[in-house]
Amino acid sequence: MAGQVAEAAPVQRIPQVLPGIGDVFVELGVRRVPEVDRWLRDVARRLANGPDLVATLDVYYRGDMNRLAAAVALHIHPRTLDYRLRRVREVTGLDPASTKGIRVLTAAVARLLAGAWD
What we know:
With 118 residues, this protein is mainly α. It has a single domain (2-8, 21-113), classed as Arc Repressor Mutant, subunit A (Orthogonal Bundle). The chain is 69% helix and 0% strand. It contains 7 helices and no strands. Helix 3 crosses helix 7 (99-113), helix 4 packs across helix 5 and helix 5 crosses helix 6. The longest helix has 15 residues, at 34-48.
């Protein structure tokens, strides 16, 4: 199971925490349902085509969706963060602050950062 968790967890240059099942249970489940994985890959592809959308969402979600903290961590103005979050809505049809958006987008970002579809 540890190997599966390691494959599902986003790669971090300097790991902040050692991920466990509770951190990646959605990604583990998605891997086992090819149809869902293909759908999530399409969402991820749309994100990857936008400028800095994946990195923005990663920092935004890791910071518990604190706009100011995310903007500081990304070295951007809070309005730029707002613009990027609007772009996420435009390209995916998902609001990054909605329950559905959080579920889908965190899984897509985690799978992308883990190199799931390289």
